[in-house]
Amino acid sequence: MDELKPTPPNSTPLTPITFLERAAIIYGDCPSIVYNNSTYNWSQTRSRCLKVASSIVSLGIQRNHVVSVVAPNIPAMYELHFAVPMAGAVLNTINLRLDARTISVLLRHSESKLIFVDCQSKSLILQVLSLFPPESPRPVLVLIEDDEFPIKKTDEFVSTYEELVERGNSGFHWIRPRSEFDPIAMNYTSGTTSAPKGVVHSHRGIFVVSLDSLLEWSVPKQPVYLWTLPMFHANGWSYPWGMAAVGGTNICLRKFDAGIIYNSINKHNVTHICAAPVVLNMLSNSPESKPLNHPVYIMTAGSPPPAAVLFRTESLGFVVHHGYGLTETGGLVVSCTWKNHWNKFPANERARLKSRQGVRTVGMAEVDVVDPESGVGVQRDGSTLGEIVLKGACVMLGYFKDPEGTSKCMRNGWFYTGDVAVMHSDGYLEIKDRSKDVIISGGENLSSVEVESVLYTHPSINEAAVVARPDEFWGETPCAFVSLNKSISEKDIIEYCRAKLPHYMVPKTVIIKQELPKTSTGKIQKFVLRDIAKSMGKSNSKKMSRM
């Protein structure tokens, strides 16, 4: 059969944009997006995306140019997941929690040519651009207006979003990828400014992970999906594209709390939600918490959910599914797939089993836990530690403009995640720790190295090390250990960091020590500090500390 080769009919590039085309045919008159008092159907959503795509091209955007979005979970944010790649461009969604300095670095690193800016982020983006060096090219700005807010377009913006819709062409022939390995999206792993990591994903990878995530979660046709997970977070685990594949209704929320979530569930008959464990904790501990009128399926990931939180959440009527993924995989690639006989176990045991990350999804080729030095799989004894490694279609193309970083994590035919885990005898893996430079707070990855770099700029700080401290609300928060060369208070150190870092990266705990523990070669022993932070018990950071 050597003469049989790929041909155009059997090798057309896979792309998730085709999900929207199909949705408009099958679910054309069914609701696609609901936001406040506005409702769109799938036929309208396709038309609006085509119009915006044609307008993006008219602004001079070319194939593989980066187009950024700074917006919460509003209709424009959803539509741009299709409109930007329809224009042949690469979508870059920006974390709203980042400060102006960090966003400025990321936009320059990505070489963004166009930025869609939500009205509530208008002043932030203008501040961001003021930090650009004079010689740096300025991206074009488009303002996303909202009837709720009296913030209007000014001269810095070439257009509003709705003006692009109005003057766009609904008959636009969208720009298909030449190869399914063409880039579709780029997301930054954290707010790291010294070495930002722009994770680039292909059309093929997003196509596979979108369908894979639907299959693993057993999402039916036409679910009602409530957007509590930020779409700027790894493109909402690829569910913007996935919801089009099944003709779902996207309930968009600009902001949310427990009361808003419960009200939305009842008002819209919500069936599915994605959320970090911090949201599960919020839902189960809130004064507004009450038993649900119907089952609501929640996919949680981002950090290992405590068994106690899972138990409380499911006692309210939520059906929790636990998965694992990274920005570098575009979505969930490991899932705690449930076995029917586990239902016979006591509730506490079921929660313990569900808190494990699980097994590879159908779309992943291979997943293992290996010794990071030898690359050999660890014993399946539930106690031998190793690093999670992955192979599969949805693994990123690589880090943008960072071949060294790409080659460092992609070696021996595997993608090395940096996450430490054990493999149980039943083949289910469980994360036991994180690589030393990563703290997961509220589902967001943050680099301890960046926080340390800021601490070291303070003239009174001699040494600094940042580790994770368990937190009742956020899962983990940064805990800073410092030694001083001049007296200064813990409060002053926190305020210093607050002026230089996004608030979610600011240490919530500062411990002043005479000297930090070191190895014989002078390296700070972070494992000692992690033990100290853990022994302090869980902190109780208030929600307002993130605002």
From TrEMBL:
The keyword Ligase belongs to this UniProt entry's keyword annotation: yes
The UniProt record lists the keyword Ligase: yes
SUPFAM superfamilies found in the cross-reference section: Acetyl-CoA synthetase-like
Location of the AMP-dependent synthetase/ligase domain: 21-400
Originating species: Solanum pennellii (Tomato)
Family as reported in the entry's similarity comment: Belongs to the ATP-dependent AMP-binding enzyme family.
Protein name (Swiss-Prot/TrEMBL): Probable acyl-activating enzyme 6
Protein's pathway: Phytoalexin biosynthesis; 3,4',5-trihydroxystilbene biosynthesis; 3,4',5-trihydroxystilbene from trans-4-coumarate: step 1/2
Domain AMP-binding enzyme C-terminal: 450-523
Record keywords, A-Z: Ligase, Phenylpropanoid metabolism
Domain of life: Eukaryota
